[in-house]
Amino acid sequence: MDVIRMAKDLGKAIQADDRYLAMRLAMEANDNDEELQAQIGEFNLKRMALNQEIQKEERDQEKMNELDKEIKTLYGAIMGNPKMVVFTSTKQEMDSLMNFINQILVMSVNGEDPETAEMNETSCTGSCSSCSGCH
Q1: Domain 3-104, architecture per CATH
Q2: pLDDT tens across 39-58, in order?
Q3: Burial of 107: CB neighbours in 10 Å, binned 0-12, 13-18, 19+
Q4: Cα three-residue angle 86-36-38, rounded to 5 degrees
Q5: Which of 19, 62, 105, 115 counts the most CB atoms within 10 A of its CB?
Q6: CB neighbour list of residue 134: distance below 8 Å, 6 or more residues apart
Q7: Torsion over CA: 22, 24, 25, 31 (sign)
Q8: What is the DSSP string of 11-79?
Q9: Is the pLDDT score of 7 beyond 60?
Q10: How far apart are CA 82 and CA 21, in angstroms?
Q11: What are the extents of the domains in the chain?
Q12: What is the dihedral of CA 18, 20, 26, 32, to 10 degrees?
């Protein structure tokens, strides 16, 4: 079996993995939540308005402060939405799996024994502040 065929088979296996399926279900739940989608749309509009204000030569600091406050409030509401909480968690699990798979491949290319790779070596919380560095 050639390497490309094996990579395609790996892709199919990833799509059959429970972590992938959970992430896809969470993503669909978010996509189908009209209130959440409206909040995301409003967040994006406010962020664009803030960026436009920042780029002006004569900035309105009061307007920028208000937009920043509104953006932070919307962000909190979006990230606090139970469906978004589930999605974030499932996405982190999927990212951890993909990081581990990548680690195995990199180890292999570097001549190391891929059997020695351990999942906890790449567990990523998504927060760089708690990280000792990417692998």
Answers
A1: Up-down Bundle (1.20)
A2: 999 999 999 999 999 999 99
A3: middle
A4: 160
A5: 19
A6: none
A7: positive
A8: HHHHHHSHHHHHHHHHHHHHHT-HHHHHHHHHHHHHHHHHHHHHHSSS--HHHHHHHHHHHHHHHHHHH
A9: yes
A10: 18
A11: 3-104
A12: -120
The per-residue DSSP string of 66-92 comes to HHHHHHHHHHHHHHHSHHHHHHHHHHH
* CA 25 – CA 17 distance, rounded (Å): 12
Spell out a b/e string for 24-42, using b for 16 or more CB atoms within 10 Å of the CB, else e.
eebeeebeebeebeebbee
Residue with tokens 């209130």: 35
Q: Which residue, 82, 96, 86, is CA-closest to 127?
A: 96
pTM of the model: 0.77
**Backbone Cα Rg of the chain:** 20
